[in-house]
Amino acid sequence: MEDVLNCLASQRDTSVGALCELLRIPSVSADPAFAVDVVRCAEWLAAWLGAAGFQAGTEATGGHPAVVAEWRGAPGAPTVLVYGHYDVQPAVVADGWSSAPFEPQVRDGALVGRGASDDKGQVFAHCLGAAAHLNVHGTLPVNLVFLVEGEEESGSEHLEAFVEANRERLACDAVIVSDSAQFAAGVPAITYGLRGLAYVEVTLHGPARDLHSGSFGGAVLNPANALAAMVAALHDSDGRVAVPGFYDAVVPLQAWEREAFAALPFDRAGFLKGLGLADDWGEGGYSILERLWARPTLDVNGIWSGYTGEGAKTVLPSRAAAKLSCRLVPDQDPVEIADLLEARLRELCPRGYRLEFQRHHAARPVLVPVEEPAVRAAADALEHGFGARPVFTREGGSIPVVETFRRVLDAPVVLMGFGRPDDGAHGPDERLHLDDFHAGARTSAWLWHLLAKGGTP
Ligand code: BES
Ligand code: ZN
Fold first, then answer.
1. Among candidates 158, 140, 148, which has minimal Cα distance to 122?
2. Stretch 92-117: mean pLDDT, rounded?
3. Quick one: which of 299, 346, 303, 350 has its CA closest to 326?
4. Containing domain of residue 415, as a range?
5. Under DSSP, is residue 149 helix (H, G, I), strand (E, B) or coil?
6. C-alpha torsion sign, points 201, 207, 211, 216
């Protein structure tokens, strides 16, 4: 391992430079205007992995292409699937960036750019960890398959069918995913649970056209007022979601889990300070970590109606709309939850007004087993790479394909994030600390070595 680690250390600058190239490609999956860049990004990654010694290419999925790269030169050794995504969330300077989101810059020891942490930097750390072995030894200790998709940030719509169609080719002894975060800087984490997602859009249609708010206000129910009341009615005064049946399938938190969460070094004051908040909010009777990781939620992601331009316009809008998402926990089903929400909103819909209900993403919640040799290998690799033993966490975010891997490939999935919770994923000035990037690459190099040994007994 020493030669491999020396190789990584000697190539740090080149590695950061290569990651910058990757970050310069605006692979925004949600916006069709970037479709060409998405493909270019997939090709860049396939070419890099090809040059490193993998059999690599881009593959059609029905949506944005997936990168598949295989190295199967270790017969008898375990086969490991590395999953990640090369697509990113939209980003424009006007969102509050201090530099152009697709012109990465190193500032205060961190690489700032869209995708630095979520997920290009983390995926690339694994590319480096594998390439260092190939560079030094000409071989890898395990058979390695990279599956890097281009649709995660828009719901991984086509990936389930792709995994099913490629079930044999993707068959493996473990799946490694680095698309989450450390618990805190210097406290690496293995994540054993992800929330799911049900994302919908509602439009409330009222009067036939926009009206003068003086001539009609007071006689006509304003759809914006009405939608605000409907949305407000979706929570009770204790922060619980007020949709009948919403909690029916929720697996209650176990006593051991509540104890384990409470024992984590969570810094509530630091958490609030980082957000510029005086207080937290949420379902009564649960701690912040419990609410984030193991309780379901309902949130408005966007809400609009009427006049939102400069100055004032006296108008009573003809319609109002909102994008709503529910984060889900085992065993909630995203389709059932969307059904329940639709039913409740239809009940709340004012008489004579029309409610349009559209379904967007769905992702199933998942828990992954931790009593696995691959998890022990990952914990040891994190300790080598980051210099500290990982803690076990759940996360509030979603990675839709993880549940698919569990079901279709029936392999253990190890979620080991290299980023930090405050890397600013999805927000302005997203960054990846270079220390974490290099620690991630070292962790990856160790991981292939330790997985070949079958994990520590
Ligand atoms: N990397 C995140 C998932 C994540 C977030 C894991 C926070 C752990 C902590 C991923 O790229 C993501 O943002 N997923 C989307 C999925 C959705 C579009 C279906 C999410 O959670 O919003
Ligand atoms: Zn993301």
1. 148
2. 98
3. 299
4. 2-194+365-452
5. strand
6. negative
Could you tell me if residue 266 is inside a domain?
Answer: no
Shared domain check, 388 and 356: no
Residues near ligand 1 (Cβ within 6 A): 118-119, 152-153, 155, 179-181, 197, 361, 363, 395, 397-400
Tens-place pLDDT, residues 134-177: 999 999 999 999 999 999 999 999 999 999 999 999 999 999 99
Task: Give, as residue ranges, everything with CB less than 5 Å from ion ligand 2.
Answer: 118
Domain boundary among 317, 345, 363: 363
CA 179 to ligand 1 centroid distance, Å: 8
Q: Are residues 309 and 219 in the same domain?
A: yes
Between the CA of 397 and the centroid of ligand 1 the distance, in Å, is 4
How many domains, the chain? Answer: 2
Among the bound ligands, the one closest to the CA of 151: 1
Quick one: tokens of 207?
A: 């009067």
CA atoms of 325 and 54, how far apart (whole Å): 39
323, 344, 363 — which closes off a domain?
A: 363
Is pLDDT of 457 > 80? no
Gap between the Cα atoms of 453 and 138, Å rounded:
19
**What CATH number should be reported for the domain holding residue 389?**
3.40.630.10
Question: Residue for token digits 């020396």?
Answer: 6
Mean pLDDT of the chain: 97
Q: Is the pLDDT of residue 454 over 70?
A: yes
How does 301-319 read in b/e, with b if 16+ C-beta sit within 10 Å?
eeeebbeeeeeeeebbbbb
Q: E strand or H helix at 291, and its extent? A: helix 288-293
418 and 352 in one domain? no
CATH of the domain at 209: 3.30.70.360
The mean per-residue pLDDT over the stretch 347-372 comes to 97
Pocket test for ligand 1, best of 28, 31, 153, 394 (most atoms within 8 A of CB): 153
